Amino acid sequence: MSGAAITRLGDMGRWEPDARGRLMLAALALYTERGYEQTTVADIAQRAGVTERTFFRHFTDKREVLFEGSGALQETVVAAIEAAPASQTPIDVVGAAMVRAAQMLQERRDFARQRAAAIAANPSLQERELLKLAKLGAAAAAALRERGVREPAAGMAAEIGVAVFKVAFEQWIADRQPVDFADRIQETLEQAKALTNA
Amino acid sequence: MSGAAITRLGDMGRWEPDARGRLMLAALALYTERGYEQTTVADIAQRAGVTERTFFRHFTDKREVLFEGSGALQETVVAAIEAAPASQTPIDVVGAAMVRAAQMLQERRDFARQRAAAIAANPSLQERELLKLAKLGAAAAAALRERGVREPAAGMAAEIGVAVFKVAFEQWIADRQPVDFADRIQETLEQAKALTNA
DNA sequence: AACATGATGTCAGCTACTGACATCACGAAC
DNA sequence: GTTCGTGATGTCAGTAGCTGACATCATGTT
Predict the structure, then answer these.
(1) B170 with A155: Cβ contact below 8 A
(2) Among the four A146, A154, B2, B176, which has the fewest Cβ within 10 Å?
């Protein structure tokens, strides 16, 4: 069935293992090559050596296949906020959490870049990315509230944190020379502070 | 053809006028009554007294019918930024522009509330709303750059402005007593400044 | 060797959305 | 007042995203 699909050495029989991973790779490749709209779910499935139906068993829709890691990212941010020392200000708590998030992506800059390019090229994918970031912000706000930060401070601090992440991310992948993503976050956070102080 | 569609006195013949407006009203009503997913485009069209095809001539998709005013809002914000005195800081420029935007919605609080409720109830609609806000932010950032504000300050200031708008909007429609939306913006902006100063 | 299980394949069907073409109401030209 | 151009609508066929129901197959358990 799998035909020319990626076959590894360790094949212990069964179907080709890791259909999920193959689907993610196939989708990113096709979105990059011909664009999101010109790619059909059947195309992705075929390239991964499975059926269209199987695609929808692993991912809720055609967009979600690009957003696998977002859950882990959110967990990291929330954990960082929960673990922050009580003495820190809300903004610095969120800032430190975003640094943690940045460190997760640090080593996969090429991948992050290709993915970002695909997303930037299509409004549908942008919408999904924005929703993920909004959820990240909501989770961060909730974690802050858990620490005793009141509204609207919690919500505002979380929003600023996400904004810092967005702006820093863009700069990070735009840079010619690979710079440190975490450093970028710090710089952008300082920028935000400076902006609101004048 | 129009059947029981809303008929006004001034009917000068022709088809029922303002199919676009009727579609918008029908959509909001149905999204509120049975929810977005349980509403079919054919339902909306029927309620408005037109065909499904006509719906798609007026709106690009099933979500867009709820976001008619977003273009005008963005123009208002950009115009306010362009007209701001040169002495103001970027943050205050954006803050003032958001106050202008708030004033546009001020008198239609009930409508804004119903619309917000429908959006809050469905992720698909949230995505679209987030995209509109992101575009608003991008336009604001561009307007700031036009005034000489450099990156990443322009992007960051715009993001903070949008964040202030989001947080203030939520509080505005959550309040029991109708308070002044513009006031809420001001307060939230002060919150943001206080957060980044400690 | 029979069986329970999880992942996949197959198939039918709904709905969002689009292109192509016909039609109709109105106003302008004649 | 008849003809004609135009813009908005209706009709129809077709693609693609997505789902439910059911069959199948590889595994390892008994």
Answers:
(1) yes
(2) B176
pLDDT band at A198 (very low <50, low <70, confident <90, very high): low
> Strand C: which residues 55-94 of A lie within 7 A (CB)?
57-58
Report pTM: 0.91
Amino acid, res. A11: D
Minimum CA–CA partner of A160 in chain B = B160
Give B45 CA → D10 C1' in Å.
13
Alpha carbons B63 and B4: distance in angstroms, whole number? 25
Per-residue pLDDT of chain B in tens (198 residues, 90 and over written 9)? 333 333 333 344 357 789 999 999 999 999 999 999 999 999 999 999 999 999 999 999 999 999 999 999 999 999 999 999 999 999 999 999 999 999 999 999 999 999 999 999 999 999 999 999 999 999 999 999 999 999 889 999 999 999 999 999 999 999 898 899 999 999 999 999 999 886
Mutation target for A interface from B37, B61, B156: give the one with most A CBs within 10 A.
B156
Q: Which residues contact A73 (CB under 8 A, 6 or more apart)?
A: A101, A104, A136
Judge whether residue B11 contacts strand C, using its CB and a 7 Å cut-off: no
Q: What separation in angstroms does the CA of A129 have from each of A67, A102, B33, B80?
A: 8, 16, 29, 29
Q: Which residues contact B29 (CB under 8 A, 6 or more apart)?
A: B47
Q: Does the beta carbon of A186 lie under 8 angstroms from any beta carbon of chain B?
A: no
Matching residue, tokens 């943001």? B192
Three-state SS annotation for A53-81: HHHHHHCCCCCHHHCCCHHHHHHHHHHHH
Please, which contacts does A165-169 make with residues 24 or more away whose CB atoms are closer than 8 Å? A165/A98, A165/A101, A165/A102, A165/A133, A166/A133, A166/B159, A167/B152, A167/B155, A167/B156, A167/B159, A168/A98, A168/A102, A168/B152, A169/A102, A169/A116
Q: Does A64 touch chain B (CB under 8 A)?
A: no
